[in-house]
Q: What sequence folds into this?
């Protein structure tokens, strides 16, 4: 299989396996203003060798700016960029991009229209002064890797969007960079191809063991591709964590509502169970829910204090199952129902609040009303 | 397939460098400064300042500062109190007015006919406009002397001899004649600008209006015209500046019809003994007018959004003229005849006619004028060589500078970036004759009587054309393309060589050819800067006209036009092939 023939140095070097190595990339309190906006406003991040980190956030939150500072195209106003433990950018110093040994896949692909596919891919190796035969072999290997072997002599104008995207990837991989940067590489593809490429990219990243910093505003992409997700908002980091962590235990309301669909319900703390790391919340819209909570928050939690509970649509149940005695259901009125193939999407009103619920089966409602229960262990308090 | 494993050497090297010596750290610091880039950019900016900022500063200085170094307006007063100066200024004003009005009246309807109707003879008009654009006015003057000189002009002889006119109906040696020649020379600017804008209006804009119930005429008036208004305005400004700074035709006709405009007055002031400060003062009104026009251009025209005009006209937008199409076709043919066929034919004929005034018969066709021009002992031959050398050098200098400066302005963020574009555009709007005065004052001591002096003037004045063309080319290149090269390990110079240059080669080539052609026909600056040893083709042509040797003038002019036209045809050929391969 070609993937093994084109192995990266860090293939086996998962974070734990290389305790001594410096972080492949380290950002220290990185800041950059563009015009009047603080596009990046104090970012700290470490990326270990072999790791895949995804910067996720809404459009305009500073992802591209961060990536371009890492690449050396933008100089930070403050803070530092370290690559392999070596200072590469600060407010007073900037190593030129070509000296950083990076690979980059641009959102626009940036395939050179005057060079063939093979010449595009070979370029980095030529610049590095490698021998012709060597270059030819490596280009063939990396083109096989992205399944473009047959198109080596085509010009970019003769390729589809998806194929151009693969060329961009091949070109970035050919020099075996110490860090691969990708800026929304899939955003110009159509939906089904995008979906397919996500998994392919992830497989490639894992097989090669290549360290990647990936920028996207698409949460599904982030969940598939990341070892760790960095959720950004307005130039700052909201949370860093594994896909499961940011999805199940978001640190802020923003993270909770940006990743997946969130029902955020306000309420008052009725009981604090520190040993069980959970609280019982009496919701303002009625109902009582046992909800897990972050430990730091729990330390300050007192009965009668306020809490915001996150309930995912698929964690709300319409049928009364066995529930601990302290819990009480939310009474809600049926508004609408849509069939989405795998599930039904219901909208219900509980007091002022709109609740979104996903259900495998069609709901049955007496007089258009229902009793809603949180699936045990699913509710989460966001700070 | 060979087994490719990843050598970690480079990484370890770098880690070693990190821990190790101060030398390596110093090297890193130096490479971070990117010295090659700084050097190339710095040098280009220095040349730009020397070419444009320095002469302009001198020009302003001379007009405002007296011999004792004090600020004064006296120079203006004295300069404009000179005999005939006020009349010359008024003449220039009328010239600008009539030429602008005439160019619009001719150019706009023609553009619409060609872009949007089914009038026959459309391609003829485009060709004619191209030809009359290529022929400078000091050359078309020769043709029109041949055709419409008061008594001996062949059209006049036709009119009195065969059509029953009692006196000669045409007189090119008059202010009206000058206006006519200038209109024919500049209307292509309006025509091409409006035609291009009309072609770029996406059909959907007009279709949207039609869907909403507007008929064709209403759509034309309320949608189409407003959308081409920026193009018309820019063209009008160009035409005004062109008319104001025109020198060739006013010099040739003015001498014979005995009137002056500002530019010819400046030329007179620089004849021996040269009066630099008066010349500079007289150039000031042109300068100020130019500056105001450019500001209007920048704020009024740019405010209207050009970017919407990126579509492609479709056959549905063509207006069917019905019976009118024959009238329209007739108009097209007359325009082509008067602006291109007659002048070119007259020029060719005159260049082989035994003498001006001789009956047109086979016996009177001779090659002796060409023979004389190429005669070793005659000044014209040297001028051909000079012109060719200057054109080659100017084209090369401008294309190179245009590439570097275009890149700097488009890609490099630093304080003063806007200033580069601004300086270059000033040189563009700057009237040639005033610019030449500045060059003369700035470099006369260093380069008096050399071709270098003329080269400096050509390069400075024509740089804007190269700059704008190449800059547009670079603008259309996504920054990503160059950044991809940098990330792949290429340094700045290498990324320019491997990515930027190949992708803008078309623009650079066109810029080179245009500057070459324009250098060949440059008269106003050459007239001031050329000495007896450094005559160029246009100055020799003008001398011939003033001496009454119009047959020789015609022969030399044919060479200028011939070379220019073949260069332009060459561009068309190359660009046509290039677009075929790229798209
Ligand atoms: N050249 C610029 N001048 C001024 N503001 C800019 C410029 N480029 C980006 N910005 C602003 O900086 C912020 C971050 O931009 P960016 O990093 O491109 O966001 P993202 O990639 O996350 O969508 C945005 O608010 C954007 O409007
Ligand atoms: Mg972005």
A:
């Amino acid at each position: 299989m070609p993937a093994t023939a084109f192995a990266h140095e860090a293939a086996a070097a998962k974070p734990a396996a290389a305790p001594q190595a410096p972080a492949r990339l380290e950002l220290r309190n990185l800041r950059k203003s563009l015009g009047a906006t603080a596009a990046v406003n104090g970012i700290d991040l470490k990326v270990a060798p072999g790791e895949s980190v995804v910067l996720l956030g809404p459009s305009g939150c500073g992802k591209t700016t961060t990536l371009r500072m890492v690449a050396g195209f933008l100089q930070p106003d403050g803070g530092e960029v370290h690559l392999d433990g070596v200072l590469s950018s600060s407010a007073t110093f900037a190593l030129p991009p070509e000296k950083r040994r990076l690979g980059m896949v641009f959102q626009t692909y940036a395939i050179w229209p005057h060079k063939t596919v093979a010449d595009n891919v070979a370029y980095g190796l030529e610049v590095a002064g490698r021998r012709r035969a060597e270059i030819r072999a490596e280009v063939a290997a990396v083109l096989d890797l992205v399944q473009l072997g047959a198109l080596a002599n085509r010009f970019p104008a003769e390729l589809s969007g998806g194929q151009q995207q693969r060329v961009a990837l091949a070109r970035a991989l050919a020099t075996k960079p110490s860090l691969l940067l990708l800026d929304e590489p899939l955003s110009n593809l159509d939906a089904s191809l995008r979906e397919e490429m996500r998994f392919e990219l992830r497989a490639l990243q894992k097989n090669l063991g290549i360290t990647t910093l990936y920028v996207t505003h698409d949460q599904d992409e982030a969940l598939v591709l990341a070892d760790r997700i960095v959720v950004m908002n307005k130039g700052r980091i909201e949370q860093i964590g594994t896909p499961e962590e940011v999805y199940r235990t978001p640190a802020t309301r923003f993270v909770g509502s940006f990743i997946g669909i969130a029902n955020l319900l306000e309420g008052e703390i009725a009981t604090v169970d520190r040993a069980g790391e959970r609280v019982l919340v009496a919701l303002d819209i009625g109902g009582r829910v046992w909800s897990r909570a972050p430990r730091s928050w729990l330390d300050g939690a007192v009965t009668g204090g306020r809490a915001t509970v996150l309930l995912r649509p698929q964690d709300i149940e319409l049928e009364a199952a066995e529930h601990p005695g302290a819990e009480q259901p939310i009474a809600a009125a049926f508004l609408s129902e849509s069939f989405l193939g795998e599930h039904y999407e219901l909208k219900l009103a509980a007091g002022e609040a709109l609740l979104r619920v996903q259900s495998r089966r069609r709901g049955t409602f007496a007089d258009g009303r229902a009793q809603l229960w949180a699936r045990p262990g699913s509710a989460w308090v966001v700070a | 397939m060979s087994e490719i494993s990843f050598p970690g050497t480079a990484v370890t090297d770098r880690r070693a460098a990190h821990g190790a010596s101060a030398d390596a750290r110093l090297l890193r610091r130096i490479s971070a400064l990117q010295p090659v880039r700084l050097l190339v950019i710095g040098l280009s900016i220095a040349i730009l300042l020397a070419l444009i900022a320095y002469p302009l500063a001198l020009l302003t200085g001379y007009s405002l500062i007296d011999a004792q170094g004090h600020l004064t307006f006296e120079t203006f007063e004295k300069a404009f109190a000179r005999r005939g100066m006020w009349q010359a200024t008024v003449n220039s004003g009328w010239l600008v007015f009539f030429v602008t009005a005439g160019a619009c009246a001719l150019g706009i309807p023609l553009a619409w006919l060609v872009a949007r109707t089914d009038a026959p003879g459309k391609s003829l008009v485009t060709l004619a406009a191209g030809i009359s654009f290529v022929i400078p006015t000091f050359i078309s003057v020769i043709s029109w002397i041949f055709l419409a000189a008061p008594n001996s002009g062949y059209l006049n002889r036709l009119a009195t001899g065969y059509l029953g006119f009692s006196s000669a109906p045409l007189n090119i040696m008059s202010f009206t004649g000058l206006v006519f020649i200038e209109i024919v020379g500049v209307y292509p600017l309006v025509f091409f600008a409006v035609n291009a804008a009309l072609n770029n209006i996406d059909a959907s804009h007009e279709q949207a209006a039609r869907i909403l119930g507007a008929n064709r005429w209403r759509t034309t008036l309320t949608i189409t015209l407003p959308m081409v208004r920026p193009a018309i305005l820019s063209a009008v400004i160009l035409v005004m500046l062109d008319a104001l700074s025109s020198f060739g035709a006013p010099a040739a006709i003015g001498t014979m019809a005995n009137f002056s405009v500002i530019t010819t007055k400046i030329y007179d002031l620089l004849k021996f003994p040269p009066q630099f400060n008066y010349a500079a003062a007289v150039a000031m009104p042109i300068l100020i007018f130019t500056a105001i026009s450019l500001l209007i251009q920048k704020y009024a025209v740019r405010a209207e959004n050009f970017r919407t005009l990126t579509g492609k006209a479709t056959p549905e937008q063509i207006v069917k003229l019905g019976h009118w199409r024959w009238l329209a076709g007739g108009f097209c043919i007359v325009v082509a005849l008067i602006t291109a066929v007659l002048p070119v034919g007259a020029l060719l004929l005159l260049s082989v006619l035994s003498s001006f005034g001789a009956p047109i018969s086979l016996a009177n066709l001779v090659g002796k004028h060409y023979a004389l021009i190429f005669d070793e002992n005659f000044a014209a031959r040297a001028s051909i060589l000079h012109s060719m050398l200057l054109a080659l050098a100017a084209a090369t200098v401008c294309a190179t500078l245009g590439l570097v400066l275009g890149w700097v302005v488009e890609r490099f963020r630093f304080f003063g970036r806007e200033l580069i574009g601004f300086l270059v555009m000033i040189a563009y709007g700057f009237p040639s004759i005033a610019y030449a005065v500045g060059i003369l004052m700035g470099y006369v001591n260093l380069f008096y009587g050399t071709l270098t002096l003329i080269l400096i003037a050509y390069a400075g004045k024509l740089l804007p054309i190269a700059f704008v063309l190449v800059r547009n080319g670079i603008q259309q290149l996504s920054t990503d393309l160059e950044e991809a090269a940098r990330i792949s390990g290429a340094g700045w110079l290498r990324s320019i060589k491997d990515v930027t240059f190949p992708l803008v080669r078309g623009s650079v080539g066109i810029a080179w050819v245009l500057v070459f052609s324009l250098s060949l026909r440059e008269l106003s600056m050459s007239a001031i800067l050329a000495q007896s040893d450094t005559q160029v083709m246009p100055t020799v042509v003008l001398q011939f006209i003033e001496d009454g040797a119009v047959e020789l003038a015609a022969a030399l002019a044919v060479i200028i036009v011939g070379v220019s036209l073949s260069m332009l045809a060459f561009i068309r050929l190359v660009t046509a092939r290039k677009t075929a391969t790229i798209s």
Summary: Residues 191-208 of chain A form the longest helix (18 residues). Chain A has ten helices and 20 strands.
